[in-house]
Structure formats: C-alpha cells, structure tokens
Structures
1.
Amino acid sequence: MNERNMLLGKIKKYDFTLKELNLYLDTHPNCRRALAMFRKYKELRSDAAEEYTRRFGPITPEQVSDSRRWTWVDDPWPWERR
Amino acid sequence: MKLDLFDDVEDMIFHEREAAMSMPDMDMKNGNGDSMPRFPKNTPLAMAYVPFQQWGETYGDDEALSRGTLFPQLDLPFAKGGGGK
C-alpha cells in the first residue's frame, strides 16, 4: 500500500509543479527555462502515471486499458477506503 | 526582495513619499548619485503597480507542494510569523 501512496504522492507533486509552471508560462510564454522545466516534469509525470496505472490500475476512467473488464470499478470506492 | 518591508507598511509608505519628494538625495548609499527613484519619472499617481515576475530560483517539487508555490519570490505567507503548517 505504501508503494502505491508513494507513487500517487509523486504524481501529485509533479502535477502541482506543472500547474505552477503553466500559470507562469501563461504570462511568460517565451521563457525558455520555464518551458524546459515544464517538458521535464511532463515526462516525469507521465512516467510515474504510467507505472502507477500498470501496477495499481487507472487513476482516471480513461486510463482503463483492460479489454476484458472495466477495471475502473475495481478501485476502492471512497467509502471502501480504509 | 527584502521581506521585512512588509513588516512596517507605514515605513514603506513614508519611504515612498520621501523618495518621490526628495529626488536628488534619493538612496545615495549605493553611490551612483543618479540612482533612479523607484518609479519612472512620469509615472501617474494614484495607480497600483505590480512588478512583473522574472524567472528566478525555484523550489524543488517536494518543497513547492508543501510551500504552496514553486517560486520563493511568491512565497509570501500572510501570517506574520509565516508558514503556519
């Protein structure tokens, strides 16, 4: 369970940084350094998300990749969370 | 940017007024006599100005999430003591 939370935490962190960079880039569209950082974190985020979904299932519905079952329903529902 | 400016707003306003009134002896400390007052000469009065952010230091992604900003320049906790966890 810890591994799962650790990965989720990483995704959250990367999302936050990406959002901050997004807001900065909105007003500084030509800032090369911000753009480079955005690209770096976009990759970090997609790697982390890819690993998470491979091991623990979809984070968001459109990440369901199983062709036999709608695995979205297998995630713990909010009330089922310990 | 010196954060302690925020500690004493009256002082800051006084300083601004001083700077505006006494152009010549403005901030002689750093030696260049012709140092510009804080705002360009013909800056209209009674307008609010927000200095445009320049790209500067950034927190690491861990710290950014906990500080609530990626940019130390924008990490301005309102609480006097700052950073109430």
Note: The longest helix of chain A spans residues 2-27.
2.
Amino acid sequence: MTRRIDQGIDRGAAFRFDFDGQPVVAYPGETVAGALLAAGVARFRTTARSAMPRGLYCGMGMCWECLVVIDGRPSNRACMTEARPGMRVETQRGLGGPERS
Amino acid sequence: MKTCDLAIVGAGPAGLAAATEAAELGLDVVVVDENARPGGQYFRHPPAGFRPVGETPWEKDIRRGQSLFAVLGHPRVTYLPDAVVWDMPEPSVLAVAAGPRSGRVQARAVILAPGAQDRPVPFPGWTLPGVISAGGVQNLLKGQRIVPGTRAVVAGNGPLLLLVGANLVRAGVKVAAIIEAAPIWRRLPAELVRLVAAPPILAQALRYRAILAHAGVPILAGWTAVEASGSQAVDQAIIAPIDETGVVDRARRRRIDCDLLVTGFGISPAVELPRLLGARLRYDALRGGWTVERSADFETSVANLFVAGDGAAIGGVELALAEGHLAAQAVARRLGRLHAGEGSTWEARWTRLDRFRRGLESLYRPPRSYRALITPETIVCRCEDVTRAEIERRRGEGAASAVQLKAATRMTMGRCQGRNCLPTLATLLADWAGTEASAIAMPRPRPPIRPIPIGDLAVEDLPPPDLPADPHLPRGRR
C-alpha cells in the first residue's frame, strides 16, 4: 500500500531529494521525516555510543531521535525540517561529524 | 526588548483561546510558539500546498482550528512562530530564540500554554525504528497525511489509543490490535454516570470504537506491550497481561507481527518553565505526573504567572480552550480591563468538562507502576544509551540520588534534556527507596530549557554582565 493518504487531498507537484544516494519523492510542505517514512525508510540514524538504529519517535521536536545530516550539516531534526528539492540527506552515524566514513 | 500586557507561551488550543479572549478585552498580546504553524498538536494541519478534495474525517477539526488562528492576525496580537522560549530570567520576561528575531519579551502577565508530551514508558526494544509515540503518529496523520507503517499494533494506556487506532484504520492501515493497560471494560459501568457529563466527547469515543469494531480490531484491556523485537526496525510486538499492581504475566505472552508499534502511555504536562521559576508543583499520577498548582483563576504560586490547558494538568482540548479563556479573563481583571463578575460564561462549561475528566481518569487509571517492563538491558535514557543495568551498577558504586546518577551516567544530559528519562528515573529511585515518585528530588532545570543555536544568543542586545574581577567569585560580588 502507499503510505501517503491520497483520499481527500491534492498534494501539488512532487519533487525529489537525495537520501544516501537514492532519490526520495516529496511534496511541498512535507517534512524530511514524512517523506522518508512514506518511502518506507524507518531508520534515520545510529547512536554515538552503541551504534543502535533510531528513527522518528516523538514526531513533535521534543526527543531529538530523528536526527539526519542535511547538506553536510549534522543533527537536523527530520520531523521539524521541511523537505526541499535537491537537498542531500544522509543517515546520521553517531554525532554526524566529519569523522563518519 | 518588546513589551506587552500579556505574553502567551504556546499557540495550541489553550494559548489561542487565551489570545482570542485577551485581544477582545483590549490587551496587547504577544504569542510565542516553537512551531512554524499554529494549532499545537491538536489542531495540527497539512501544509498550505495540500489542497483538500471533498470532505474527509479531518476537515471539521481543521475548520475549527482555522477559526482560532484568526486571532493571530488581530491588530493587538503579535505572533512569533518558530520561536523557542529558552529561559525566563524573571516571571515577567521571556527569553526567545528565533534566529535573527531572537530577543526578550517583557509582559505585565504571562500565560503559559506549553501543552504536553507523551509519557515515556521504557521496555526492551522501545528505541527501535518503527516504534513511534501516539502523538507522533497523530502528527504524521494530521499534519502530513502519511502513515508510518502498513501493519500496526497500538499499545499503552488512555483514550488516545482508540483515536489513533481509528485514524489508522481510516487511513487504510491494518491494525492488528489495541493493547490497553487498564481493565476498562470492567470499570466502565461505574464511570458512565460521570462520562455522560460531556455527551459530544462520549459520542466521539463510541464512533472510534465502532470504526475499530467494524474493522475487526480486537481491544485487549489489562494487557501491555512488554517488548518490541527486530534488528534494524520493529517486526514484532510482544504483549502480556498486566494487573493493577503492575505485575506482568509473561507466561501468557503473545507475539504479533507488525512494522509499526504505536506507544501511548498517556501524556505529561510540559512543566519546565514553571519548575524553572520555582512555581509550586503537585504530583498527580492520574493527570500525567508533575502538574502545576494553580488558584481558581489558573494563577501559579508565582504572581502574574498563569498556566492553562494540558501544560498544567492533563484535561484534553475542550478543557484547554475553556482554561485559555478563563485565564485571559483573570489577567484582564488583574490589569483592570474587566470587572469582577463579568465574563464568566466559561466557568459552567469548565465544571462540566472537569466532571467528565474525572470519570475518564478513573476509567483509565493505569497500573501502579510499569517498572516490571524495564528489564536490565532496557534503554532508559535514549539520548545517551543508558540501560537500567548501567544505572544499577552506578548505584551500587554509590550514586544514590537523581543528581548523582545524572553525573555518573550522563542520563538526562542529552539533547532531550531528561524529558524521556526523568520520569523513569524518578520511578526507579522511588522503587528503591520504598516511596512514591512524588517524593523524589529531581535535578533543577537550567536554561536553555531546549537546545538552541548559540548564534541566537549573539543577536540579543543586552547590557554587559556584571562579572567579578576574580572569576572564582559568585556573580555580582567584587
């Protein structure tokens, strides 16, 4: 099934951004978290201490679990960041600094 | 520094109702909200680019929200979206971080309407991708029209589970089961007398129940999620019966396949600002844990500091709206813009809704504790990956209090600043001490109460601080 509810809504024109080298479809006003979840991506980052997988949890900007690297800048909350055409989103490993491989 | 009669923190139901009332009564109002768009969690709505096509179950709430948003364009109202109140150095001053718009707001009175957050209840696997809070799933549905899975289990405690379950069904998701910790079916007959105090809300609940029944979704009452399993994301929820004392019968556990485990163990008031200002709090397990003590006018123990809605004690959207109006009327009376006895039409409504709330609280009274779910390997602090075993090891080494355990493990020091682990730490400490969570001394919150970009501080035009020549002396002494 699609993870976007199509009934009762016209989303406008789709665009794409890049997630770990793969194109992801988004619509104007969608968050990075929304678009990733709609594409079936649940894991957004791994933790610094134990490299455990994490994804969206609180969905309202409070828990800081959904962190991703955007255009080289680490620690953006995917649930609070609007997707933009052409943005480069990466899975955040640990603190997401330049030491990541 | 911006000055006004009334500053309101939060543009959810309570904040918007307060702004509407205050603007009508002639007060100059500033509304600060951390979200880009108004409405809080309840009136979260899709972005402007999404155009509705025909009538869906969501439109009525959206229209209701939009009529509330109108006040933000009122000539006496200044609305600061995308703005975080990170400190209140005095009860009348808000420190606001908002990029180049950062600065301070000075008000003659303040109404806090910060709302609530999901109450964290740790169990093994609750950190796996695909385990999402009930509030988070609601926001995806309401604000993005996106479902984060295809086969869901909804587990926790409280009326929100029925709503999320029904919404997921309406969105086309297969909901395998609703897992409710409280034995609600057994308690329902005794509570009906209070629940009929709010017929529209009761009718709504029955509609959700009918949607779930029609879709064949079982509701297991007196059960809880005890584990989420999976390696990179959740693929199974494990559930077991729980009794009212919190004892879990693992021998009767069952596994349910799912790619979405929604957890909602009730919500807790966001009390950081009242706590920072030293306002008196009161522990109320039925209303979300720490609640704010208030007068009949919704004023806290700090003069001219009011709290309305779920940010004070959990009561739901209709009570929040009533409290927003009533708190704004109280401020107007304080500032001489309203005479005693005037503007009390919301009081009768509040009383009726409060009666309903008491019935609902009693119906959904949770088990005394969820600590049986916290196995040694369970992550308690999500930010710093601290397990229960690690906390107990540090405790064995002599770290006895919340403050000592914080220093020893780094728990509560991560980005969420304790919001997801402090309640659990209080539960564990109370358990070890043989007392209640209300008796546990919690670490003092310090500004910034939310992480903010350091550049936002540089924007502020403040007088130079009165620093001592000797940096080892306390501030203000020379």
Note: The longest strand of chain B covers residues 103-112.
3.
Amino acid sequence: MTGRAASQDSVTRTLTVVATGPLTTVQDGGRPGQGAMGVGRSGACDRAAARLANRLVGNDPDAAVLEVTLGGLVLRAGADLVLATTGARCSVAHNAPVPLRADRELRLGLPPSGLRTYVAVRGGITVEPVLGSRSTDLLSGLGPPVLAPGDVLPVGEPTAPMPGVDLAPVPDPPGGELTVRVLPGPRADWFPSRATAAFTATAWEVTGESNRIGLRLAGAALERSRTGELASEGMVRGALQVPPSGQPVLFLADAPVTGGYPVIGYVADADVDRCGQLRPGQTLRFRGALS
Amino acid sequence: MRVLPAGSTALLVELDGLDEVLGLYAALVAEPVDGVVDVVPAARTVLLVTDPAVTTPAAVEQAVRRTTPRSGRRGGGELVELPVVYDGADLGDVAGHLGVEPGDVVRRHTGTEWTVAFCGFAPGFGYLTPDGEPWQVPRRDSPRTKVPPGSVALAGEFSGVYPRESPGGWQLIGRTEVAVFDVARDPAALLRPGVRVRFVDAT
C-alpha cells in the first residue's frame, strides 16, 4: 500500500499554471560552456536570488525555478509541496520555505519594488532540458516555451534534506536609484575621455525596451573617438555595449554570444544580479574607472 | 597578442586575424586552462570565460601567454560533407558580382575545402572560410525578413548555412537538407569551430 501511495503521490507532483502575469519563464543555471557553438548561457537574471530560493527548499542551487516578471503568477499544487519565493517580494511569505497543500493556490501580487520574483519548489521544476538546461533563452529561442495558463509543470522528488532555515534575512531589491561597480571594457579606448567621464557622471534611466537580454539605458549620448566597424567579438553578461546611438545597453542573462558594437565597460559580475531587478524608470549609476 | 579586459569573469584576447584565432582556439581546446568554462572564438578575438570560484582573469592571462598556438589551422578537424542544391535566389547576382557564370560559382564553392572559423548570430551558425582563394561577396542591399532553414549563403569572406528560419542579409546560393543544428544531437552544432566542410553539388 505504501508503494502505491508513493507512486500516486509522484504522479501528482505538479504545479498547474493558472495565471502567468506579464512574463514567467523556467530558469536554472543556464548553458555555460557552449559559446563556441553560438549558444548563450541564459539562466536566471538574478542568479543569487534563484540560488537562495533553491537552498531554502533543499534543492541543488542551480535547480530549475520560475522567474516571474512583475508578479501576477498563480500556481495550483497537484500534491503537498514546499515552495519559496525570493527576489522581488510579492505579498506572500518571502525568503522562507512555505508549504502549499494539494489543490491550494499560490498567488503572487505586484511587488512594491524589484522586477523578478523566483519561485522554487522542493524537488525542482523538471521540464525536459534542452542542451543540458531547462532555461528559456528569449534571444535564441532555446529551452521550454514561455509559461501559459493551463501548463502543468512536473515537480521532481526531493534530493536532500530541508535546510532547517525559517527565513533568509536578505534585503529586498531597492526602488529608485541603484549604483553598481563598473570595470573597463575591451573597447574603452574607442571613446574619448569626456565620454568615459560622462559615463560615470550620468544617472542612466532604465527604459521600457529592457528585457532579459539587456537593459536599454537613456542619458548622455556617448560619442566615439574612433569610427569604423568592429568585427563581432565574444561577450558575457554585464557587458556595456554602445551602439551608434550612443545610448548603452547593459547585457543580462540572455545576452548574445558575440556583438559587433564596442563594449565600453563591464558591470562587476556580482552586481549584475541587482541590475536584473531594475524596472523601467529606475536610474542606474556606475562607480569605478573605465581606463 | 593583445589581452583586453572583459569584466570580473572574462578576458578578451585580440589577434592579427582568423588563422591566429583558429590556432589559439585549437590549442586552448586541446589543452584547457584551469578554471576556464567557455572559449569563444570570433573573427579576430578569443573570449575566455572563467569560473570565479576557481581562477581569476589575471591567472588565465598568464596561462594564455604561455600557450603555443597550433600551427596550420587546416587538416586537424573532422570533415563534414554537405550536399547542396544550388538553386539559391541570389546565385545569379553573386555570379554577376564576381563576373562569372552561375556554374562557375558552384564549381568554386564545391572545389575548395572550408573551415568553420567561429559561430555567431544564432546557435549553430558557423562562419566558414575557404582553403583556397578568398571570396569577397557583398551582403544584400536589403536583408530578407525570412531566410529558410538550410539556406547556403555567402557574405564578405565567409560562407554559412542558416540553422533555422531567421532574418538575414547574406546572398543565398543554395540549400541543404542536412540539419546543421539539432538539439537532440550531441553535439547539437554540426559546424563547430575547426570543423572542415566540403560542399557537394546535389543539384
């Protein structure tokens, strides 16, 4: 009888998507190491938040979670499950493991600050991996489709004990202005010193054309001291690329593998997660020297 | 070799040209540097991405400077044959640009061995460079919004095969039924850096 009960339980270890909000995707640690094939890393935009969510429910830190953009996700449990939300706080117990009974719903409201909420479930989301990852890459189209109402997500079996942590004391993503550390990029010398000075003196506005690929920033137009074309070259998240408009793009998780515009600087990798929580209208400042 | 900064987790090595890129890339694949999680060749650069828990860009720079590039980019890699039906919409334009007949374009495209120099633009899109005489073909004045998958194309000094339907500005000379990118296959990309390619006329 026990075996039968366990197998019934395992077939109902699911989360049904009732509503998705503006955008919800499955994300994990991404696809590192495949850049030479033209495959980008992808994965959670705020890696630290996704890893914390997994640790709170006793998962591998890079297990697949849901990345919810501006709240609005409603999930129904197919069995008794344990969930945790991290990142942007959405009116439910946050940064803490929470049981969700079978047939009950988790409803995420609109976060007061921050953009992306991570929902981990004990056992992980076990949709079919593509090239070793369950991440949806919105640039290349690899990975599972963007979530839609009615989707039924399989949930894995727990692999490790619960961590015995009630609450992780981490600050919420801030509203308003954010300052991050910047380092020189490979093509900082394509810009005159007045452009690199303007870069760190400007409060850049995050525009509405921002997404998982990158933040499009608006502020001072950065002029170049060199004209001519740059042969495309490899880059990673955190790259600050300056297209001919002079308005930089800060690349995030779904950055292209290569780019053909000069990269003036790089946001320090540990700070890129915080940039992934910025909403349109917030401002971003860079601290550091570009030469 | 010029080593350029690329943030706290990567560095960008700039070289004189494609042959030097292929030589260094081949050496870095044959003898991986500790803590390097990705090596991305491009037209004149090789990006090395590190695992910050294992190493630093400065340590990787030292290791790269000690690396001896493989000499001779040709001959080492696996050889792939791609049957091509040469009925591309731009075959006549390419022939006109080169001042030859369409049949001459096909003979030249099939008559040389190509090497994948690097990938980019889309997963599995390889930039192929010829062993023989270099090509120089302009891009189309106006890019197509939809290029069918399997399209065999030319632009600049490169040839390529579109892995899936996408927009594109390259000149289409033919098509192949071979899937150059398939996530169910390992490796998914047929045309990886260093792989040699021979196009076979299947018209």
Note: The two ends of chain A are 69 Å apart (CA to CA).
4.
Amino acid sequence: MAAILEVKDLNVYYTEKKSILKSAQTLKHALKDVSFTMEEGEILGLVGESGCGKTSLAKAILGMQKRYDGEIILNSPNPQMVFQDPYSSLNPAKRIGWILEEPMRIKKIPIEERRQRVDEMLDKVGLDRSCKEHYPNELSGGQRQRVAIAQALLSDTRFLIADEPVSALDVTIQAQIIRLLLKLQKEMGLSILFISHDLRVVYQMCNRVLIMKNGVIIEQGEIEDIYQNPQNDYTKLLLEAAGIDE
Amino acid sequence: MKKRRNKNPQKNLILGIIITAIMLTLTFVGFFYTPYDPTEIAVENKLTGCSLEHIMGCDNFGRDIFSRVLQGLGNTFVIAVLTVSIGVIGGILIGAFTGYFGGWLDEILMRANDVLFAFPSILLALVFVSIFGTGKYNVVLALGIAFIPSFARIVRSEFIKYKEMDYVRSARLAGAGHLRIMFVHILPNTTTVLLSSIMIGFNNAVLAEAGMSYLGIGVQPPDASLGSMLSDAQSYLFSAPNFAFFPGLMIILLVLGFSLIADGIKG
C-alpha cells in the first residue's frame, strides 16, 4: 500500500507577542521533530491532552500553518477537515443545500450535477433530502455533523482530518457518527486522521494510533499492541484514565 | 415585567412599520402629485392658517405648505437614502477589508477613520460644502463621507468576530478565495446588525439634512426641504405656528418610524 501522508521531522513554532509596545517575541515550540507515515485507506488515531499540538499538526498538514520546518508530503488533492463543534462549522446564514453545493460551486461545476451529487451525498450520510431547505440552526448536533462530513466529502478528497468530531455530541449520537465514518471510509477508500482525547473512541475507529505529549510523538504503533502493552508511562496513564485495563 | 419587555419590540416594530409606510406613501405621492405647485407664489394667501383649500395653510410667500411638505419630504428622503447608501457601501468595503485582513492596512485605515470620526458630521459636511459649494448633491456627498466611519466600525467588528469561525476555515479548505469568503460567506451574517444600524443611520441623515438646510447649505430655494422650511418658519413662529408645525411633525414622524423599526429588529 502506498503512503497517503508522510511527515518528516516537522517542527512548528508560534510567535507570541508579549505586548504591543515591546517588540520582544517569545517563540513557542508547538511541534518537535514529528515524523510518521499514514497508509492509503488507513484510519490513524492521534491522541493527546489539550494543548499538546494535535491541532497544530492538523493545521500544518492542511496548509493553514505556513511556517514550519520539515517535510509534509500529502498524496491527495483538497484535504478536508471535520471540526469539533458542529455549531460553528456551518454558516448560520446559509441553507444546507447552499453549504453542500459550495465546494462544487467554487470549482464551477454545473448546477444540475451539483444538485444530483448533493442528493446522492445526503443519502450516503443518512440525511433526508428535504433538509437542503433548512438552516443549520434547525438541525440537531448529530445532523449538523453529518452535513459537515458530507460537505468535506463533496470536495473530492481521499484524505480527511477529523478533529474530535464526536466529542461535542451525546454518547448515542457519537456511536452513530463513528459508524457513519467507518462506513464511508470503507465505501470510498478514505484515509482519516482521527484526532481525539477519548481512547475508547479511538479504539473503535482506528487501525494505528499516535500518542502525543507536549508536541512530541511519544509512542506509535498498532492499536492492539499499544492498548495491550503500552511502553510509555504517559500512555499507561491515559489508558488507566480511560478505564481500559488489559 | 419580563413579559412586557418581550412583547414591546414586536409592538414597536409594527407601529414603526405603520408610521413609516404612511410617510413613504406621502413621499412617493409627493414625487408625482402635489395639490398646488410648491413654488407658486400667491401673495394674497400670505400666512393664512389651515383651511379647506390649503389644509396646512400657506407660508410667507403664500405657497401651499402641504405641497411644499410633500416636496420637502421627497427631497429629504432622497438625500437621506443616498447619504446612507454612500456610508454603507464605503463602510462595508473599509470594514470588511480591515476586519478580515488586519495588520498594517487595518491600522492605517482605522486611524484615518478615527480622525474622521472625531469631527462632528455636520462640521465635516460644512467644511466639504464650503470647498465644493452648496447644493443637494454636494450635501449628499459630504454627509455620506461623514457617515462612512460609523458603518466601517460596525462591519469591521463583525468581520473580526466571524473570520475565525470554523465555517470560514472550511470554506477556505473548499478553495474559496478571500473576496468570496468576505462577501459571500461572512457578509450575510452581519445583516441583522447592519440593518438596524442602517435604520439609525437613516434617521441621523434625515436630521443632518434638516440641520444643513436649516443652515441654508442644503436644498436651495425655491425648492423645499423639511429643514429649509423650518428655517423659513422661525420668524413667524408666533404669527403662523402651522408654518413650523407641519414640517417639524414630518421630521419627527419620519425619524420615529425608523427608530421604532430599528428597535424592533434589535429586540
């Protein structure tokens, strides 16, 4: 299998301005020598506490973070992201149909094809076709997250970053969204970088997992190996905290 | 107590719409029809009170006040609408670019904005008019430019609020350019705030125009505007109170109607 994503010695720094008057800046080292590869069609988990650099990594891969050292090779066009909060990821001033058509409208795809593909995608993510006429605030969190997934997939991508896509949802809805992501991954051969702090969800979803702390990947490998036999103390702590014991 | 507060905006909105609808009807009627020629002088009718022939009486030249009020409403309305349009379009452009991009462009434009904001708009318009001369369209331009800063600030703060939202990020990931994100994705979210400030801006424009005409630099005689009529009427305040009363009433109703609507939208 070919690698869809290769990250080599990635370092990301942020400059923090201390005040407007002083020109002195502190450099924050958000990611330190991060290296990993991701195979085509794989779901890779990325686990770590908040502030450990998960989102920085996602931004760097998506090209939102322009300043970095190292190498990122992504073999997929239009990488997309599913955001954590389904209440801010959909434009409240636009109807669902408009939101879903937007990626294709930007690419100047004709209107009949857009409509047809939106309908097909709505079927795929398990939403009623009539929801095109609704505004985002008329939908539930789970429905919104389905719309967000549909929108990401309508950009013709094979690579998706899911940034805590279920942590803002109820447990029952979480399970539905996870099942949906797994189904879509199989059907469309997607590769998903699944960011989460919930080790149970990661266990359900992923083939392999990266454990991250303070901008460093401290452990990576097959999910079974790591959950059965964690090498690092921090990983053991995380597993204990999640209530997963061997 | 709470119930009343919730109910009021709705009432205000309806009342505002009714008043505004009446005023707009009068304005549009005034464009096409006035009972008498508003500039026709008839000395024998000088300063007559209300009667069946002249329902609002006649002014110091014997001109029909009702006809002049209709014409004045039209002039005031056109000036206010054009003024607000200039202010809103300029404000949206400046506010969108400064709010969205930030950085040095933001600093420069917002400091220029502050300078403009520091002058009272009437004073600024006076300076402008004294350079370019009096007249309807110079007043529009002068007031319009003076109105830009307040709209620019509102739009800028809205753009700063929305530009970090996830839906903007996802639009960027979908390949939308900066202009598309600014005007197609973010701008529609600012309409509620913008609409109520447009209403308030319209009121300020009506009052500013009345003020300018009162000072004699707006609409030029013999054409009427509500402000110039008030200005003419002040010498006859006691001998012919109807001369000042009706133009004043029209200004009050025009402003009240839009204020109530603005209040209703916000509530």
Note: DSSP finds eight helices and nine strands in chain A.
